[in-house]
Amino acid sequence: MPLLSENEIREKIKELKGWELKGKEISKLYNFKDFIDAVAFVNKVAILAEKANHHPDILIRYNKVTLSLSTHSEGGITEKDINLAREIDKLS
After folding, report:
1. How far is 2 from 31, CA to CA, in rounded Å?
2. Could you tell me which of 6, 4, 26 has the C-alpha nearest to residue 17?
3. Which of 36, 61, 70, 76 has its CA 20 to 30 A from that of 27?
4. Residue 32 · residue 38 · CB < 8 Å
5. What is the pTM of this model?
6. Is a pLDDT exceeding 90 seen at residue 1?
C-alpha cells in the first residue's frame, strides 16, 4: 500500500476529529472516566486491529489512552492508518 503525502494526510485527518500528524504517524489522545473504561476501550480497539491486521501503538495512563498509527512496513502513513482511525473513532 503506497505512502500518503503530507498534504494527503492533512486533508484526510481533517475528517478525523482529534487526530494529529506527528512525524511518520497519526495519533490521538482519548480521555475516559477511569482506568476500567480506558482498558475497555483498548480491548475494543484490539478487536478492530486484529480484524484489520493492522495494530496501533497504545499507551495507557490511568484514564488516558494515546493511539498512534503508522504502517511500519511502508515506513509511514498509508490508507490503512486512515481507515483504522476512522473505525476506532466509531467506538468512542
Report:
1. 32
2. 26
3. 36
4. yes
5. 0.93
6. no
Separation of alpha carbons 51 and 53, rounded Å: 6
Q: What is the rounded distance in angstroms from the CA atom of residue 18 to the CA atom of residue 36?
A: 22
Q: What is the CATH number of domain 6-89?
A: 3.30.1360.20
Reported as a single tens digit per residue, the pLDDT across 53-86 is 999 999 999 999 999 999 999 999 999 999 999 9
Of 22, 15, 23, 32, the C-alpha closest to 83 is 15
> What are the residue ranges spanned by the domains of the chain?
6-89
Q: Report the C-alpha gap between 12 and 7 in whole angstroms.
A: 9
Sequential DSSP letters for the chain: -PPPPHHHHHHHHTTSTT-EEETTEEEEEEE-SSHHHHHHHHHHHHHHHHHHT---EEEEETTEEEEEE-BTTTTB--HHHHHHHHHHHTT-
| Distance in angstroms (rounded) separating the CA atoms of residues 86 and 14 | 11
List the grid coordinates of 60. 495507557
